[in-house]
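Fig. S4 source data, part A: sequence.
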Amino acid sequence: MHAGALVLQGDAFFANRREQLVALASRHAVPAIYAWLDVPAAGGLISYGINNPAVWRQAGIYAGRILKGEKPADLAVQQPTKFELVINLKTAKALGLAVPPSILARADEVIE
C-alpha cells in the first residue's frame, strides 16, 4: 500500500527527524506538509505552522512578568494567532504537482 500524502505534526519525535523525513518523502515521491517553517527550504513541499520565535518571545515576556512578581494564575492563556504557509515550487515540480494560484497568493513565502 502506498501513501498518497503525509501530514507531519509538530512534535519532538518528528522534529528530530526532519531531514530523514524530507529525504524519504522525496525518494518515494510522496507529497508532505510539515509543521516547521524551515522544512521547505530543505526540500520539503509545504509547511504550515506557527512562527516559533514569536511564540518563544511571548513565553519570555510571560517569564519576565512572573519573575517580577505576577502570579501565573493571573496571566491570560495565550495561543498562537498567526500561522505561516511556505511552499517549495521546485519540490512541487519534482513531484509533478501544480500549486493553484489561489494557494500561492496566500503563501507567506514561496521558494522557487
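Fig. S4 source data, part B ends here. The first strand starts at residue 6 and ends at 7.
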